[in-house]
């Protein structure tokens, strides 16, 4: 098999691999499933405070969550009475805390809008019961005896201290059960997304009481988002150094024993979206029970702490953290540095984490240096090509030597005739004599595949690429090129097809077209093969990839264009250094390989 056929088979095989991975990683959009019961039937919205929603108990402790002391926790429904709210104002978040249950159920992110338009609404992270998508966090106590009243979801807390929660001003809530127990919550917040909840219970009775603190995040139904194989959304938790990710669809199938993990020292758990996250974080070094489950369409994550005994005249205290905000790499990294174990892994780095983490770290550094994520991607590509240059040089040098050996290989074929074994032995001797490795040309291509998918992962999941502009019409590098050939790139007064339309695939923007041209020129460094079938396959490949990658994020297409351009220049210069001058214009005109040789 000559090198042209070998290159054809290699290129075809790699193309099929890329196409196969494309359909695995980016399946067709599915209708987001509604909440279902265990039989798969739709369910009505249930009371978030039903018995099944109480945190799991320990050593016979029974949950009690109402001021009436019935032992049956009940969350506010749409008919629940209104209660005062405490405003939250920080540089990063706005919202309020509901004194009804002391719940975090109203939170928006000040620095992020739903759409690219600056007048678009802020991203809403947490929302109260009674809305379309209730999503909130509660913290409280479980009772060790049925006759002990503890605050629950229907408890209206009094504002003991503070009016507005700010980084400089914490607030304190209190509730007296009327039977000798006084409960307090002191809530503080930093200038980012971390809340600190200090819970205390003061025992003024003559009896020792037994209580168990807990924290909980509740989410009614799945978020309305398009599922991606490459992206995890659902439960994420760290338990003594072990990371676990559970999709929403898989949570109902998790048995009780597997849903509970006894954490001895460090851990955290919560719900993660593509860019946002709500996470319960016990104080580092604290033992707790980590629980993730689903009850009647309501998804729950819980941190349940060991029971404490409070003697008469004594006060018990529990401290925990709540992260509710954007998954900013630098912010998450700083929280990890402050003691939260492996918190950076709350970002979905994927299978190639050993590549995605350093790639993003370099990209983030370049963006801090340059101030433009598009130019940072271009410079990152130059760095990657520089790191791989020794392999590329060896590959292109080997290819140039292979071309120098073409006359001798033709003579060898004539002497061998139909004796394939003799031909193979002669070729191996020829390669060995001239120190040529015919497989060396494959290595740079194989290395590009994991780098390509790692960079796509970085661009797809990291918040820093969201709504990041480059130049002119590219205002969001995490989205496809918004220009379209169908309206002559904005010259005609016609709207382009929506991404969900069947015509979107032919609505090519400027970047995808430049990608196809760069692949076409790179291909024309070599003459077209003499076989008509081979010529046709090679001729179609750049344009097939152009349509395939046209709907990718602009940042990834920009990387691929830069990569192709640098590869073209490297290969051209290395070929010239070995005495071979590529006839690019002749190759574009379709001159077959045998004609070029003559």
Molecular structure report:
This protein has 598 residues and is of the alpha+beta class. It folds into 2 domains: 61-348, Beta-galactosidase, Chain A, domain 5 (Distorted Sandwich); 357-597, no CATH class. It has helices spanning 3-25, 256-259, 329-337, 353-370, 373-387, 389-404, 406-416, 420-433, 442-461, 510-523, 532-549, 554-577, 584-588, 593-597; strands at 85-89, 93-98, 103-113, 122-126, 135-143, 158-161, 164-165, 171-176, 181-189, 194-203, 209-220, 234-239, 242-247, 260-263, 267-272, 276-282, 288-295, 298-304, 308-310, 315-326. Strand 1 (85-89) and strand 2 (93-98) form a beta hairpin. Helix 10 packs parallel to helix 12. It starts with a helix and ends with a helix. Residues 1-12, 22-52, 56-79 and 593-598 have low confidence and may be disordered. It is found in: Cell inner membrane; Cell membrane.
Side by side, the strands of the main sheet go 6-8-9-10-20-16-15-12-13
Q: Based on the coordinates given, report the CATH architecture of the largest domain.
A: Distorted Sandwich
The CATH class name of the largest domain reads: Mainly Beta
Number of domain modules: 2
Beta-strand portion reads 15-25%
The low-confidence parts are: 1-12, 22-52, 56-79, 593-598
User: What is the count of helical runs?
Assistant: 14
Distance from N terminus to C terminus (CA atoms, Å) equals 21 Å
Question: How much helix, percentage-wise, in residues?
Answer: 25-40%
Q: What is the global morphology?
A: elongated
By secondary-structure content and strand pairing, the structural class works out as alpha+beta
What would you report as the Rg, rounded to the nearest angstrom? Answer: 31 Å
Average of pLDDT: 80
Report the major sheet: 9 strands, antiparallel
**Oligomer designation:** single chain
CATH topology of the largest domain: Beta-galactosidase, Chain A, domain 5
The total count of strands amounts to: 20
Domain Membrane insertase YidC/Oxa/ALB C-terminal: 373-576
GO molecular function: membrane insertase activity
Main location: membrane
Family: Belongs to the OXA1/ALB3/YidC family. Type 1 subfamily.
């Amino acid at each position: 098999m000559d090198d042209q056929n070998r290159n054809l088979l290699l290129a075809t095989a790699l193309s099929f691999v890329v196409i196969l991975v494309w359909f695995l990683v980016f399946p067709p959009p599915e209708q987001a499933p509604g909440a279902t019961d265990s039989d798969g039937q739709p369910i009505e919205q249930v009371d978030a405070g039903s018995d099944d929603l109480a945190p799991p108990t320990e050593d016979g402790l029974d949950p009690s969550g109402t001021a009436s002391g019935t032992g049956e926790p009940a969350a506010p429904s749409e008919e629940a009475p209104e209660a005062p709210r405490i405003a939250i104002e920080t540089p990063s978040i706005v919202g309020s805390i509901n004194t009804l249950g002391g719940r975090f159920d109203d939170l928006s992110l000040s620095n992020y809008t739903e759409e690219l338009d600056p007048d678009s609404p802020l991203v809403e992270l947490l929302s109260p019961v009674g809305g379309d998508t209730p999503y909130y966090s509660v913290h409280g106590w479980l009772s060790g005896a049925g006759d002990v009243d503890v605050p629950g979801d229907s408890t209206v807390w009094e504002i003991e201290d503070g009016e507005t929660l700010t980084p400089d001003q914490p607030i304190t809530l209190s509730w007296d059960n009327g039977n000798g127990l006084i409960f307090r919550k002191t809530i503080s917040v930093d200038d980012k997304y971390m809340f600190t909840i200090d819970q205390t219970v003061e025992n003024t009775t003559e009896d020792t009481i037994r209580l168990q603190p807990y924290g909980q995040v509740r989410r009614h139904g799945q978020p309305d988002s398009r599922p991606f194989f490459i992206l995890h959304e659902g439960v994420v938790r760290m338990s003594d150094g072990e990371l676990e990710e559970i999709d929403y669809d898989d949570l109902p199938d998790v048995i009780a024993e597997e849903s509970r993990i006894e954490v001895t020292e460090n851990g955290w758990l919560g719900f993660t979206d593509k860019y946002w996250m709500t996470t319960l974080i016990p104080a580092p070094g604290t033992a707790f029970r980590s629980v993730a489950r689903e009850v009647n369409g309501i998804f729950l994550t819980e941190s349940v702490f060991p029971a404490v005994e409070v003697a008469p005249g004594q006060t018990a205290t529990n401290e925990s953290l709540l992260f509710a905000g954007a998954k900013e790499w630098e912010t998450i990294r700083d929280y990890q540095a402050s003691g939260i174990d492996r918190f950076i892994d709350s970002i979905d780095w994927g299978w190639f984490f050993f590549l995605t983490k350093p790639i993003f770290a370099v990209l983030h550094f370049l963006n801090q240096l340059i101030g433009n994520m598009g130019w940072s991607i271009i410079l990152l590509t130059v760095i990657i090509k520089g790191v791989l240059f020794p392999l590329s040089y060896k590959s292109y040098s080997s290819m140039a030597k292979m071309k120098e050996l073409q006359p001798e290989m033709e003579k060898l074929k004539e002497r061998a005739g139909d004796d394939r074994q003799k031909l193979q032995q002669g070729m191996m001797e020829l390669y060995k004599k001239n120190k040529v490795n015919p497989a060396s040309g494959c290595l740079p291509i194989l290395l590009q595949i994991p780098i390509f998918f790692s960079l796509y992962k970085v661009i797809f999941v990291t918040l820093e690429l969201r709504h990041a502009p480059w130049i002119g019409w590219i205002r969001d590098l995490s989205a496809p090129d918004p220009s379209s050939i169908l309206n002559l790139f904005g010259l005609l007064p016609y709207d382009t097809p929506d991404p969900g339309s069947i015509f979107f695939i032919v609505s090519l923007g400027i970047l995808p077209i430049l990608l196809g041209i760069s692949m076409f020129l790179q291909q024309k460094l070599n003459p077209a093969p003499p076989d008509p079938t081979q010529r046709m396959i090679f001729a179609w490949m750049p344009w097939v990839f152009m349509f395939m990658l046209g709907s990718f994020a602009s940042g990834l297409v920009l990387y691929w264009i830069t990569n192709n351009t640098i590869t073209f220049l490297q290969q051209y210069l290395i070929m010239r250094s070995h005495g071979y001058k590529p006839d690019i214009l002749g190759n574009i005109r379709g001159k077959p390989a045998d004609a070029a040789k003559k």
